[in-house]
Amino acid sequence: MIYLIYERATGIVIGSRVGDKPPTVLRHHATVQVAELVEYDTVRVVDGIVRPRPLLDFDAPAADAMISVNGGDPIPAAGWKLPTTPGTYRAMAVGAYRGERVSIVRTLADEQDYLIGQVKTLAASKKMTAISPGTAKPEEYRLKAPEIAASANVVAGVLNALTVAQAAAQYPTAASEARCSGAPLATILAEYRAGSAGSDAEVRRLSSIEHTAVKRIKAAKTIADKRAAYAAINWNWA
Q1: Cα→Cα distances 52→8, 28, 32, 66, 115, Å
Q2: End-to-end C-alpha distance for the chain, whole angstroms
Q3: Per-domain residue ranges for the chain?
Q4: Which residues of the chain, if any, have pLDDT below 70?
């Protein structure tokens, strides 16, 4: 048989035991027999009956919901408002409900720095993907870039007329791929150039979005306006 151990005062389940009879517990604890083991946080014992503990809707809390903020005494969830004093506030449901919400209140300057940091981090990630997806691709792009530049004004006939040794010396990355694929050297370099042009255009597009977003966040006068400027970023702009 399975027994849940719970606090008499709150009904919160704190443990369980398996045995032929109820386990001995402290006087402020009690036990109740159940058919199967449950996650302690999802239930509560009321008048000896195991009842579910629904998740608290912090945006529209029930009238009987109680929360503890940063480990403090329980207070009505419906009457609590996020303080304006900068800090981290952890509101945890207690009693009949479960769940928690962590909110961070920042100063105007800190909020601006945070949002701009988010913009730059996301922009950098998108630019890296634009260059070419894959963890090793940036290094590959670095190797191709000088070969793309060096071959920009060289006609295909001249490129394809190079000996294996000459091609390897002047365009080592493209020459290696040409030998592997059997395609002409000029074709490989043309593919590199087309891919590079597309990547460069995408990086320029992302940079435009990034710089515009940063300016708008800086120009906003309140935390709400700065957040609105961040939320309004359209990374699909073209």
Answers
A1: 17, 22, 14, 16, 39
A2: 65
A3: 1-53, 57-105, 108-231
A4: 132-137
